[in-house]
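User: Some background: our group keeps a shared notebook of sequences we're curious about, and every so often someone picks one and asks for a predicted structure to add to the entry. Today it's my turn. The entry only has the sequence so far, pasted here. Could you supply the structure so I can complete it?
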Amino acid sequence: MDSSTFRQHLLEAEQIAGELKARRAIQDPLYWLQQCTRTQDEQDLTGTPYKPFPDWAYFRPLLQALHHEPVLPILKSRTMMASWLVAGWATHLALTRPATKAVFQSVDEDRAVKDVGYGKILWEQSLPELKERWKLAKALLHQPYNRFVLANGSELVGIPGDPDKIRSEHPTIYVMEEAQKVGSEAMYNVAVATRAPHIVLIGTGGPGFFNELVESAHPIDWPEYA
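Assistant: Of course. Here's the predicted structure to add to the notebook entry:
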């Protein structure tokens, strides 16, 4: 076999492998996150800030809880990558299910918009075979700073903490960041009134509404989600 034929066979094998990975990634959000795209590590100073999701044991059950639970409070630390995981789950649902709207809200709009940015990064870092399937409504550079709009009618939206801002968005997924802060209860009540199928609250704990919600949550038998 000459070198040009060998290179052609190698290219074909790589294309087949990429196609198989893309098909699995469409079905499995965690596989997509860990094998077919990369996150951005803003604290990495080595020159390689884009990295796959780590293989941490709680990711799978947490994704299953996100899928099954209508209201899910997540008590996190800064090293858990909970915001990345929730943003990845919401982005994957938007990419694979048309007309899905994921709304991120926080008292600080910058925090909410950051989650939308996570979705943009995950799309941009995805395999070419996936980006070819998951087309955008407009080029990434021309997307609004607070929205990520897909060609399939889905979008990710970041909004500030005014409770009334959620009323006009009609979310499929509502995610509240920094839910431990003052004002979160009012936002939560409005989100519930919108009848969003998925409501997720992420916070670091402390006295107040979010801590009470966490303490009132029922324990989940994780193996049932396996």
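Suggested note for the entry: The domain at 58-225 is CATH 3.40.50.300 (Rossmann fold). The chain has eight helices and eight strands.
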